[in-house]
DNA sequence: ACACCTTCGTTCGAATTTGAACAATAGGAG
DNA sequence: CTCCTATTGTTCAAATTCGAACGAAGGTGT
């Protein structure tokens, strides 16, 4: 009965020490639509990017974050944090992008251990080409489907959620 | 300059045939927080489930959907749709769950090709044990962070988004 | 009955992801 | 300066993911 959560009419009879607060119908709807929208959206964006630019969404996001950074470069760890991936995962993807000539590695002057991932000219060019199609789809599938108010709530609410998550992670 | 989208002050000078409609600050904030929240949330839930129940989020969701279905069973394709994964991905995971004794396969009477994934008693028990901890975390990290109104907007807006995505996919 | 196109679930190989273990270094307390 | 602990990025093996290709049926129209 307990789906992700709710037990509308019949909570799991008697199980755990303290019966948890299940999700009511509305909470459940919010959670389900969040998960579903996220999955569906990812799927579509992945396909679009791969077909039109030969990039995975992850790779695209790496380019985006680098392009937004001061010198088109970021420390590996910092980049991993922004992307919300594992360090090893980033190492892998940066290597891939390096092979494609879109990103380069530079050692950090102030810290021998440090490594900067740096956007190459080719990388910038690739981003310039890939961005329009990607943005158009994000707009079509998400942004333009929602009202201004809904967008504001999304930004606000999920911003809060993210902030909390970040804090916890920092522990 | 174009991150996922926005070009706040300086749009990419002149590139594509038709300059796309970049995302303004608010749209950008909504999109970023959506992506980030989704990733962070997934990461946490994944860890919690694995540690407390030895299940991946995907596996947990399979159990949830089966438990919510008429006879605790669903056709593979139907289940794959609900989960928003590839058919091959589902085949793999159902096999894993089968090895764990949480799910079984049954052939479909009316269609020789069809296969039903079916929740075993052990699977139901596992779900009963895993649900409280999972729900508690979803509540702590998302539900309880948002107000009733925000939840309503989430459910509504993202529900719409999902619905559209589903339609497109059906093509 | 026959051809034709769709659907079903699996298999296969390739790509990706993750956490743990590591070696090298940084940084701080004494 | 000298321990001791935290951090950095990589490597490694294992797990998971996907899409394309398949073999086997279903369904339809003629």
Automatic annotation (TrEMBL), chains A, B:
InterPro entries per the UniProt record, alphabetical: HTH_MarR-typ (IPR000835), MarR/SlyA-like (IPR039422), WH-like_DNA-bd_sf (IPR036388), WH_DNA-bd_sf (IPR036390)
One Pfam family linked to the record: MarR
Matches recorded under SUPFAM superfamilies: Winged helix' DNA-binding domain (SSF46785)
Residue ranges of every copy of the HTH marR-type domain listed in the record: 27-163
Name by which UniProt lists this protein: MarR family transcriptional regulator
Organism: Kitasatospora purpeofusca
